Structure prediction request, 1571 residues.
Amino acid sequence: MDGDPASGRDGEVVDTSPMVADEVKHTTCYMCACRCGIRVHLKNGKIRYIEGNPDHPINRGVLCAKGSAGIMQHYSPARLRKPLLRVRDRGAGEFREIEWDEALSIAADWLRRIRKTDPKRLAFFTGRDQSQALTGWWASQFGTPNYAAHGGFCSVNMAAAGIYTIGGAFWEFGEPDWEHTRYFMMFGVAEDHDSNPIKMGIGRLKTLGKAKFVSVNPVRTGYSAVADEWIGVRPGTDGLLVFSLIHELLKADRIDWEFLVRYTNASWLVIQDRGADDDGLFARDENGNPLCFDRARNRLANALDAELQPALVGRRTLTDGRTAVPAFELLARRYMDDRYAPDAVAATIGVPSATIRRIAAELAHAAFAQQIELDIPWTDWAGREHDRMIGRPVSMHAMRGISAHSNGFHTCRAIHLLQILLGSIDCPGGFRYKAPFPKPILPAPPPAAGTGRPDTPLDGAPLGFPARPEDLLVDATGAPKRIDKAFSWEYPLAIHGMMHMAIHNAWKADPYAIDTLFLYMANMSWNSAMNVPGTIHALTDRDPATGEYRIPHIIYSDAYYSEMVPYADLVLPDTTYLERWDCISLLDRPIGSAEGPADSIRQPVLEPDRDVRPFQDVLLDLGARIGLPGMTRRDGSPQYPGGYADYMINHERGPGIGPLAGWRGHDGRSHGRGEPNPEQLNRYIENGCFWHDPLPADRLYFKHANLGYLNYAQDMGWIANNRQIVLQPYSETLQRFRLAARGHGEIQPPQRERDRIEEHFDPLPTWHAPFEESAVNGTQFPFHALTQRPMHMYHSWGSQNAWLRQISARNRLYVARATAERLGVADDDWVWVISHHGRVKTQVRLMEGVNPDTVWTWNAIGKRKGVWGLDPDAPEATRGFLLNHIISELLPPRADGYRYSNSDPVTGQAAWFDLRVRIEKCRPGETGETEPAFGSIAAPPGMPRTPRIMRYGEDLRPPFSGRTGGRHREFIGNRAEVMATMPGVAAGASRAKPDEDGDDDS
Amino acid sequence: MHPAFSVIFFTTASGAGYGLLFLLCLLGAAGRFPSDPWFGVIAFGLAFGLVSAGLLSSTFHLGHPERAWRAFTQWRSSWLSREGIAAIVTYVPTGVFAAAAILLGRTEGIFAAVAIVGALSCAVTVYCTAKIYASLRAIPRWTSAWVVPGYLLLGLATGALLLTFLTHVFGAAQRSIDSLTFAAFAAAALVKTSYWRSMLATSGESTAASATGLGRPGLVRLLDAPHTESNYLLQEMGYRVARRHADRLRIIAGLLLFAVPLASTLGTTILGPGTTAVFVAGISVLSASIGVLIERWLFFAEARHTVTLYYGENTA
Amino acid sequence: MTSLPPRIPDRQLGLVIDLDICVGCHACAVNCKEWNSGGHSAPLTDRDPYGADPTGVWFNRIHSFEVDAQEEGKRGRTVHFPKSCLHCADAPCVTVCPTGASYKREEDGIVLVNADWCIGCKLCSWACPYGAREFDTDDGVMKKCTLCVDKIYNENLPPESRVPACVATCPVGARHFGDLGDPDSGVSKLVAARGGYDLMPEQRCRPTNKYLPPRRREDKDLRDDSGTTARLTPAAENIDGVFLRWVDRLLSR
Ligand SMILES: Nc1nc2c(c(=O)[nH]1)N[C@H]1C(S)=C(S)[C@@H](COP(=O)(O)OP(=O)(O)OC[C@H]3O[C@@H](n4cnc5c(=O)[nH]c(N)nc54)[C@H](O)[C@@H]3O)O[C@H]1N2
Ligand SMILES: Nc1nc2c(c(=O)[nH]1)N[C@H]1C(S)=C(S)[C@@H](COP(=O)(O)OP(=O)(O)OC[C@H]3O[C@@H](n4cnc5c(=O)[nH]c(N)nc54)[C@H](O)[C@@H]3O)O[C@H]1N2
Ligand code: SF4
Ligand code: SF4
Ligand code: SF4
Ligand code: SF4
Ligand code: SF4
Ligand SMILES: [Mo]
Prediction:
């Protein structure tokens, strides 16, 4: 250079090695439920930077947008600061700050009284917290059956369909074999719980370029945008699409026979005896073993034996002279029927029949023509050695696009059936269970009914897995025992409860009135409410007779000033995720992967600067105050004086089984089982706050029938025995409920429920049009209305985040360009979105990549005025909107006037995406602000004034390090995959996996 | 582009100021500088006043005016830097000449030479100002060949109009000055209308397709901007004026900036000196000042930046 | 002076962004903001952060586009499009700068702003065709992507963290970082192999950053030998025919 002194280049000394942090602490992100490992860089006692932990099995060093905005969450002005006691009407937002002692004794008094009289009058519902092992246990020690977490309005359809069919599930309990798959089919996923793992997987899969990625989704954004093929189905019709694919595969005889006979109940004989009390159940021998017809010995045999040649078709005569057919024959006959032919369903699905046929051909091609074999010897459940693992490299994943419909349970079962027919369950290249799954079908006991006796715990867990009508929580008349009507004849397999009905039912005192509603981490008056106006009414409605609120007491624990807080009588302020201990436990929703089990912790990396307490500590404290067994010592003192951390170390569910699986036993050497280890948390912290036990190669696949794995799982205490887990395409459990509806057995549904049970408890997957679609007039409400998760926002809590809200401070309704032009609406026009239940006002955005019969918007962007530390004129409140305002929690009335919940009839899953709407252009006078608006809410005492200008980080610049140069290291994302496909690209730094680090080049 | 008043005032005021200064120098060099010392005082005062006020206002929109001096360092590559230097340099010859003309009443010989230099530096300064905009490829409409002549001629014309006015006020009217003013406005009108015509017809090579590289083949449409609310780029470079509104302003600008001065100067040349002429010239000074502000507002408001291609525009 | 370095630096560090796999998650944009908020250009001021018109300084932004298929047999698609400073070889933002505050480093080609010299005239932001410069109204100076110059060489960070924040955090691995001046570097090979391209070449800025185009997807549709779209052929005329094939199939468990 010519060294002109007057140059920025010479004028500026760039510090290339500033001292970033005084201290780096590991913990687990909680900007969403994906639970990635993070490194928190601290400087001058403030957060300088949060980065992904490269060693963490979940995220391998990456962070999503939410996780990267943790700083703004932690310092949010909306953080609650002190316990609050309501001083004016509910919803006014007027509170008095009180001391923790007062707060806890108020709560304890309410709870003690309830437990002394009628424990079920406490309804305890929690959101997407990760302490359900604790909260569920607390509820059962309290003695109320009225406990659930968010699963019922989230994705219980996926969980139930999966667990009752394959002993595992999509949701975050399974994942595609990203590395080996040749065909990846994704149904109804915008983001998923596995936010980062799915992104990482898609990135690797697409970079390798060997697989085809098909996304079935009415909207073409996000993952669907990078899919090799986008199939813009009409919402609610995936079941038909899948049946049609099955139809094609069966007719062409392109299915995996070996897989069916080895690993499923397809060969089991089903009794064919209309009218009998065992019609449609499996024929069994005297020991209760299911029977099949063994063609080797030409006789009936115990279908569970190893050395058989089971027939998959053919009517057989049972010893008692009755006939039975293999389950496979029943399903083959059903799905080969012409009503499932591509031409028959194409119009309903909105996908050309030629496309359906091609997809079927592609599936068969990938599964059978591209079969892969890994030279990994393994031993099957029967002790038979296999020299290699054979894979059908077709993988599938599905989430709320399937589950959030009233036909979601069966649609999800249909997808599992398709996987089973292709033999692509937990095989190389297929769908893979994440440890500790698979679990036996069914994994756990039925829900505990509760004695109803005062001061007595439940005889089990409030949530469980009904296997037969006897397991339901109904009284002699068949009426629900739970406030949310879960496990009743209306929603028999509601294994996650039905949180979305709790408030409505409590208000209606149907089935009975409650005393206290205890909520934790769920914004139930807003974005997790179906019918926001109605919910607000239920929370504020008073009994004219007494003048009392119909829901007498509401206790709520939130960390921030959300829409729900103003409706609480008593507010227990929680910490932020960087201020507390947390436990991501194998007993709850573990973070394990197909490569092996894992669990993790959160440790406090910063001291709270407010008078707040971790909710788990508070819950244990309350438990001790009201003397709950397990939380109180004989002398009445708390069992866990050290709070949650104490519990995490010392609590035992079974002998040697505690919240954390890692470093157990006095010497900290045992994993899975072992007595409590006082040093356990330190071991976790040393290891980056997680425990991971990678499985040896021979246990990586066929976990449902892999002896090595089954033994391991038994040792770990996940399963009771090492027996094969036989997949259940034909569900005897469902048939049992159906038989009850046909008048068999002790426990039978009330007359009015029988047809519904008969229809929906089909032992084989079925499809019915979503309830709302069939209930409302299609010409009046011609469009499906959906929401999608924005990848950078987590439900309602992202909007308080100064960085994230700059990306999305408002949401519009996306409409297909052609449709919009037909309706005469243009970009940014204001429209009314009108459902059978209500109307909401918004602006529109035109797009190409959306099913023409579908409109959609981003979820949970709309905010109420006055909350979340936002100005009342924030776009979130003036232009952002929720579809929740017009989604009803109830279906239009049945003939006799009764209104079912707007949910799946099997699992009670909230049917958010069944919503049908029409669009009307606003009149000139109506434009400008969204409606309904619900008025503004006052801020509680002690809330800081929000800055007009924020200069975060200006004080974090370190003094000059003296270093101004250095060597850069090249980074190639998915380097391994790039190297595999691109000549010349050499090893080096990649997804920060240390093992892949090569030399720096400079 | 966002039409910031500071910049609009800077370019118009300094333009007129340098135009006037340029002509005063030439008058002097031609030995036809009015002898009335008060004329010198007022005329130079006005010229230097306009120039300095313009330069001053241009520093108002700086984030750090106190560092403005640094702007003189990058003359090798930056037109803005060159403009700053030229502006300062211009003060010297023009200042010397002004002093001589006013205090010594001398404009011939060596001073005539100084005047020539002064006149040239005025032209150079305005040229630099014009180049600041004309050299921005990211704003295709400004790369038009008409921009530089536009700036030069409008500076000259508005300056000349002031000179006409003053000469009439001081009873020192010269038919040549009036007709030069007329000519300058005629030329400016010609150039400016050509700029408008070409500007409205042309949009740069860059399109949403080339900005994203996604155009082959296919029509590229913005689905979502990075942020639902505004940002610096859109506030500074995303400014849009409705075509109909712009056209209306264009007509007004045409009338006030060109029609009126042309008519008035024609009038004054025919009328010759006298109070009516003074009045007429005064009116047209007023009209032209408003006109040129509108013209400059349009110059910015109608300019489109390629960054808008990333925010939903298909051409810039 | 702010004339560009006399010759193009041999080392030209930059980013390569793969539009074939970017899912538009904004992680790179937010992580960039997070790192740089306490970094070389700290702070990245946010105005009205909790109010009606939040606008802050961002060095990286994600746009989403839809491309209609105009060609027969091609499908339309949605493309997510991240954009930050491209660290151009012929950077107009540098040459227009009157103060020398805007400059391109000789050692690695990174384009930076010297905040102590910047007078905040905004001309560089007018000159940048890509909208990659960000005026901090509160500081009165121009800011921009630093290519994480305070991270990529930082000896106080573990080696695996010495990568631009946006690159290290990208969950799908759509972002690559390296020396695009070296034809043998991995990133250069990647660009060559995937037909990486410049944005707005007609602006003649010669950007260092490259974009990898979305790949043809129609090719992945299965076609049978005759080249027509594949479909399965029934194993028999009717259902009973199919069942017949199954009746005496021997399968051992
Ligand atoms: N229209 C429509 N509605 C939907 C959905 C949809 O797709 N469309 N999705 C549904 C689904 S699947 C779900 S899971 C729900 C989610 O809806 P919610 O469960 O309501 O989830 P959030 O909005 O995140 O609200 C969680 C609450 O927890 C608080 N919180 C955050 N961090 C903490 C903490 O550390 N401690 C405590 N105590 N509280 C904290 C937040 O401030 C917030 O008030 O939304 C449902 N609603
Ligand atoms: N960034 C971010 N991540 C999150 C969350 C968040 O709020 N933000 N929330 C977390 C929670 S609680 C959950 S439950 C998960 C949910 O993760 P997802 O299952 O991805 O949830 P949604 O965003 O509701 O995605 C539903 C998708 O299904 C599509 N869809 C709707 N109806 C149908 C249909 O009938 N058929 C098909 N094939 N598709 C359909 C929609 O277009 C949408 O793309 O995400 C979790 N992760
Ligand atoms: S996905 Fe994002 S927000 Fe969720 S845990 Fe991981 S980094 Fe945090
Ligand atoms: S982080 Fe990666 S995938 Fe997400 S927007 Fe940025 S480049 Fe795209
Ligand atoms: S992208 Fe813009 S700011 Fe970056 S170097 Fe090129 S011209 Fe300058
Ligand atoms: S704003 Fe600063 S960096 Fe940009 S041109 Fe002006 S002085 Fe240079
Ligand atoms: S390189 Fe660094 S500064 Fe530039 S966009 Fe990426 S993270 Fe931001
Ligand atoms: Mo959820």
Notes: The CA atoms of residues 146 and 482 of chain A lie 6 Å apart. Residues A 32-33, 66, 128, 154-155, 187-193, 195, 216-219, 233, 235-236, 238, 399-401, 405, 786, 788-789, 791, 793-795, 913 surround MGD (ligand 2) (CB under 6 Å). Confidence is low (pLDDT under 50) at residues 1-6, 994-1002 of chain A. Chain A touches chain B through 13 residues (CB under 8 Å).
